[in-house]
Specification:
alpha/beta; Rossmann fold; Pantoate--beta-alanine Ligase, Chain: A,domain 2; 2 domains; five-stranded parallel beta sheet; three-stranded antiparallel beta sheet; 11 helices; binds adenosine monophosphate
Length: 278
Amino acid sequence: MSVGLVPTMGALHEGHLSLVRRARAECDRVVVSIFVNPTQFGPTEDYATYPRTLDADLSALEQLGVDAAFSPSAEAMYPPGGITSVHIQGTLGGSLEAVSRPGHLDGVALVVTKLFVAARPDRAYFGAKDAQQCAMVTRLAADLDTGVAVIECPTVRDSDGVALSSRNAYLDAGQRARAGAIPAGLAAAACRFGAGQRAALELLSPVRAALETAGLDIDYVALVEPDGFTDVEIAGPGCKILVAATIGSTRLIDTLRLGVDEAPLVCGAPQQECNGSS
Ligand code: AMP
């Protein structure tokens, strides 16, 4: 009897549900956790205001035939007096998200470890959009001999290419339109990669340009190898372009897996560049 686990923070959208459907297709029993995990939020971040839509989430999960939904309170997950943490080291634990959001990856590692112990899954499903989280959990599952297979699932996008995210709800209409610069930039990079370009500078420059033109506040734009997340100068298949940028007070991240993901957009400026240059 195989068990699939899909950890989420709720406010479920089609991205989450794609993970649930895959788990449903591949496992005998499917468990979905809905838990806005306080240990992965920094003191100035949006823990208090993070969208919480439990009733709608539960009915969506019921419709998909999920066997169990686990929605514990913060007090139940973290009783007072707890002294145990999980610390991620190395490049994965010390770069990109770990720098921008100190303590975030360790908080994710702690809750995922607890969820693995609670649900004893055979497989756990994570989204490729949150690339560093997915790579970190893959390594954690191996390092702690959990026996859990971590399955990386493709990013589900809106019709304009913007990756679905619970935090998109924070964006007003103008900000939402500007968020389109992220997939547009990634699409331009995908086109260049498809045309044979392998140099990091050439792959990342259209991404930066798209974000800057739209007035997004760039946190990082990086090209990394898929396992350890070290920067690379020359891209190979499976290398990832990672983007983190802020619009107003909303921080969005996105990922393109070179040679794996389709270009996020099918029309518009990036396609012209695709046909015309590099
Ligand atoms: P969250 O609720 O944001 O913690 O996300 C729960 C899981 O859903 C994580 O593994 C995310 O990577 C995944 N996820 C979030 N957005 C998407 C998306 N647009 N497409 C696919 N998976 C996603």
